[in-house]
Amino acid sequence: MKLLDVYRKLYSEFGPQHWWPADNELEVIIGAILTQNTSWKNVEKAIKNLKPISLSKMRSISRKELENRIRSSGFYKQKAERIKAIVKLLDKYSIETLKSMPVDKVRQLLLSVKGIGKETADSILLYALGKGIFVVDAYTKRIFNRLGFDISGYEEVRKFVETNLPANYYNEFHALLVKLAKEYCRKKPNCRKCPLKSYCSFYKQHYKE
Fold first, then answer.
1. Residue where a domain stops, chosen among 128, 148, 174
2. How confident is the model at residue 54, as a pLDDT?
3. Closest listed residue to residue 28, CA positions, set 20, 19, 17
4. Residue 80 parent element (H or E)
5. pLDDT, tens digit, for every residue of 58-87?
6. Buried (b) or exposed (e) across 132-143, using 16+ Cβ within 10 A?
7. Are 49 and 66 members of one domain?
8. Could you say which of 76, 109, 128 is where a domain stops?
9. CA 49 to chain centre
10. Are residues 31 and 111 in the same domain?
């Protein structure tokens, strides 16, 4: 089984996912922070409350008001602190400047922000800045484990994908994996209807046709 086969099967099944849904890069960056440890449904409520606020207004908005606007996303105090820290970074490096910089340098800058881990940083790199980097999340690890790929650890999984797929597939592939995980490859999986069951080691071990 090749990773490209997995991508093609998922794309054939689900079609393009049009992810990340946002009006601009700043919204993607903030959304990547807000989605930490919560559902996208909760993030959408918070983003709606932030729609009227531009980057310039984000600099001056009080911490208390920011917390109130993002309360639905949970952990709102920590997330407000992280958003403020990202805004400071954007004061030093504009979004266009970050886009023009080497991916490793930008990743290092993002990871230097308190509360920004690899998944959040890579989400910003891929979806907001258009960098060729793959985002690894719990869904990816679960699916790959069940498929039978003998890999573990964030960097190992990321490099595996980046070695086996073209960079222009990373965005769509990540979104397709999220779709699969939510509909079929859940913690309690719906294996019999899964479009990847013919590839899947977990299915072959636990189910008989």
1. 128
2. 84
3. 20
4. helix 76-92
5. 889 999 999 999 999 999 999 999 999 999
6. ebbbbbebbbbb
7. yes
8. 128
9. 21
10. yes
